[in-house]
Amino acid sequence: MKLKTTNLNLGILLLSAGMLLLSSCADSQKKEKEPINSQEIKVEGEMVAELTAPPYVPKPTKDRKATKLRVDMEILELEGELVDGVQYMFWTFDGTVPGSFIRAKLGDEIEFHLKNHPDNKLPHNIDLHAVTGPGGGAESSFVAPGQEKAFSFKALHPGLFVYHCAVAPVGMHIANGMYGLILVEPEEGLEPVDKEYYIMQGDFYTEGSYGERGMQEFSMEKAINEMADYVLFNGNVNSMTGDNALTAEVGETVRLFVGNGGPNLVSSFHAIGEIFDKVHVEGADLINHNVQTTLIPAGGAAIIEFEVNVPGTITLVDHSIFRAFNKGALAMLNVKGEENHDIFEGEIYEGIYLPEGSSIQKMPTPKTKKATVQASSLEERIAFGKDVYSRTCTACHQANGQGVPAAFPPLANSDYLNADVERAIEAVLFGMSGEITVNGEVYNSVMTSQGLNDEETANVLTYVYNNWGNDAQEITPEMVNEIRNR
Ligand code: HEC
Ligand SMILES: [Cu+2]
């Protein structure tokens, strides 16, 4: 079918363009690779597919021939976190969001076994966009808890494909994390690279707003209105930041398999401080070069390749930028190695691009938010405060309160902080601007109001005061409330 349409288009073009074009077209056509009829690729032997959890991918298929490939996956409904302190009931393929990465070869006959764990509550299935057949497999894989279903398909098209659950309400199954990627490599395999990673974006909808502690229920209303509270890479705000950051060495070539599970949002995938040498647009054959930002549709994917040339942190984001800094769509690739001053020269402050949490640029409104879980002891207050800190303050004041020179003052061992408790409470409640001196250094910048309630404010400050060499003291919600209502 494909071949026929190409010939038809060519015919029309030739008719209108005349004989001169005919000869040049015929020439260039000769150079093109003979199209293979993938239906006729014979399979040899059989093997069990290697499956990997994100951000890792299975070994390349290289020159292996098409085979009978057995894939075993298990659906698990399990509690996890969207960000520190915020729990969510994820529905998953193999226990991770996204589910296991499947790496196949063009012409493979894939025998897919899908188990639904007996402890699960709901039936599920799988629709793989790599399948030519009813429902992408969904119609043959509907499986109740405690059961297993199998179906098989021949991989007729090379490319990077999304898979997802398709049980009604379909959007809800996807929103809860039921998606992943399957790569069908061309006969000759993909070109070898040094590092390969698996990243998948997804949007999440919770009853509470971003960062609201405790177990969060799925919000159907927000999902239908496409008002995401979280936009995440690999199912958690910090899946690939800090100690979880991806890594590479200067001079290496990195290949990212990037998918977008949606359910709703399209991703404007971008790497801060890097240009993509090659993008397999939409995960298909078309290769674009020198790309700054590539669009990844919901239910689509892209293969992205670039060489890393200088050390530092490359920040991967959805360039719909509030999603990156305020809803979680941010990952880091740490590049180690020799400086190359011909390529980049400059003084470097680390930690400029970090998640900012839900903090919003507005003037203080003295409005108390809905009460959250109350801390019942000093230990609990410190523990809760740590979660608030990591999702709200880290972006600017850094993980260990060390700050960023000339931009964000330190909270560690801060003489300014320790001198006046009320002033610190005011800073968190109402924001702070103008010149201040902390540990002998002058700062003149703006901290926005953090939009936290009394309990959260008390917890986060208690955490700060009880760490990093500060004067240990407890800040209570009552103290915060008194200052809020002054
Ligand atoms: C968007 C960046 C940003 C975020 C997020 C942020 N701050 Fe700040 N903070 C600042 C800046 C900038 C200043 C200095 C303001 C100035 O120059 O007047 C500051 C000052 C402070 C100070 C007083 C100075 C010092 O070093 O003791 C305290 C206390 C403080 N912040 C606590 C917090 C806490 C707690 C959080 C999290 C709940 C937080 N900040 C979140 C940017 C931020
Ligand atoms: Cu499902």
Q: What features would you describe in this structure?
A:
With 486 residues, the protein is an alpha+beta fold. It folds into three domains: 40-188, Cupredoxins -  blue copper proteins (Immunoglobulin-like, Sandwich); 196-336, Sandwich (Immunoglobulin-like), CATH 2.60.40.420; 378-484, Cytochrome Bc1 Complex, Chain D, domain 2. The chain has helices spanning 2-17, 19-31, 170-175, 220-224, 321-327, 378-392, 394-397, 415-419, 421-430, 454-465, 477-484; strands at 46-48, 51-52, 68-83, 86-93, 101-105, 109-116, 127-128, 148-154, 159-164, 179-185, 195-204, 214-216, 230-233, 246-249, 253-262, 267-272, 276-280, 287-291, 293-296, 300-307, 312-318, 330-336, 432-438, 441-447. Helix 6 packs across helix 10. The termini are far apart. The model is unreliable at 1-31 and 361-369 (pLDDT under 50). It binds heme C and copper (II) ion.
Question: Helices and strands in order, then pairings?
Answer:
Blueprint: H1 2-17, H2 19-31, E1 46-48, E2 51-52, E3 68-83, E4 86-93, E5 101-105, E6 109-116, E7 127-128, E8 148-154, E9 159-164, H3 170-175, E10 179-185, E11 195-204, E12 214-216, H4 220-224, E13 230-233, E14 246-249, E15 253-262, E16 267-272, E17 276-280, E18 287-291, E19 293-296, E20 300-307, E21 312-318, H5 321-327, E22 330-336, H6 378-392, H7 394-397, H8 415-419, H9 421-430, E23 432-438, E24 441-447, H10 454-465, H11 477-484
Parallel strand pairs: 1-3, 3-6, 4-12, 5-10, 11-15, 14-22
Antiparallel strand pairs: 2-5, 3-4, 6-8, 7-9, 9-10, 11-13, 15-20, 16-19, 16-21, 17-18, 17-20, 21-22, 23-24
Helix pairs in contact: 6-10, 9-11, 10-11
This protein binds heme C and copper (II) ion (CU).
Heme C (HEC) is lined by residues 356, 359, 392-393, 395-397, 408-411, 414, 416-417, 424, 427-428, 432-434, 436, 438, 443-448, 450, 460-461, 464.
